[in-house]
Write a structure and sequence with these properties.
This protein is an alpha+beta fold and 256 residues long. The protein has 13 helices and 4 strands. 51% of the residues lie in helices and 6% in strands.
């Protein structure tokens, strides 16, 4: 008897625009994603989290992002948001402390408010360009999500949440996660926004769509992708980002 795969695992990061867009599209297709999937936040750890992770014998499966790659990410994200008609204000990260929003999300999940808090954080970062590593910004997100701001912003000093966060990053290590967003279901693995349709086709296959693919000889992803605008320059404020050295020089930021 063949054993059914475990629940799908979704590795996400508040830092990654691709994670934001993928989760947005996933939830539009699967409104119950917060209950149907196991969610794992992924971020660049501070010294304390890194020490806890190393104590577990884990590390990160990624390589450094070059300036050229970061500039491509800026342009590519603008193409994507234009295609999907999503408003966006690109944030500038200066000495970010990613434990603040990600451990804060774990605190929100513990309180049963994972989805509302997630929505508030991505709105703050990607719609308003706010600094989600600022405890004051995260406190506002928590309050709007119906949470105690002190509990959420205090997550960075909560030993249990610190340990849970290290466990999330260890899970990413054990699952060979090298970029965000990443979907894993049994032996099936899908990295990035453009693989979401492939994941959905495997996880919940549509017999009608499968028949159409067989008749047309084309893949679902290609059919859904659509046209990309011919002209798409750098996002607003991109020049300021580059001039200030805001592009990554030492980390991928957890996105492809």
């Amino acid at each position: 008897m063949t054993r059914a795969p475990a629940r799908p695992r979704l590795f996400f990061s508040f830092r990654s625009p691709y994670s934001w867009l993928t989760v947005r599209r996933l939830r539009a297709t699967v409104p119950t994603a917060f209950t149907d999937f196991d969610w794992f936040p992924y971020w660049d750890p501070d010294a304390r989290t890194a020490e806890a992770l190393a104590a577990r014998g884990a590390e990160f499966h990624y390589v450094q992002m070059s300036r050229a790659k970061h500039l491509y990410l800026l342009m590519d994200t603008k193409r994507l948001v234009q295609r999907e008609g999503v408003p966006m204000a690109w944030p500038i990260d200066v000495d970010p402390h990613w434990e603040v929003p990600h451990l804060g999300w774990l605190a929100a999940r513990r309180a049963g408010r994972a989805a509302p808090f997630y929505d508030e954080v991505v709105a703050a970062r990607w719609e308003r360009g706010e600094n989600i590593c600022d405890p004051a910004v995260v406190a506002g997100c928590a309050e709007r999500a119906g949470l105690d701001p002190a509990v959420v912003t205090g997550a960075v000093d909560d030993p249990q949440l610190r340990d849970e966060g290290a466990g999330c990053l260890e899970r990413a290590y054990l699952d060979d996660i090298f970029g965000i967003p990443y979907l894993k279901w049994g032996r099936h693995r899908f990295w990035g926004l453009d693989r979401l349709d492939g994941f959905l086709a495997v996880w919940r296959p549509d017999p009608t769509a499968a028949g159409a693919v067989a008749r047309n000889g084309s893949g679902t992803a290609a059919a859904v992708a659509g046209a990309v605008p011919a002209e798409a320059g750098l996002p607003d404020r991109a020049e300021a980002i580059v001039a200030s050295g805001g592009y990554d020089t030492d980390t991928t930021g957890g996105c492809g």
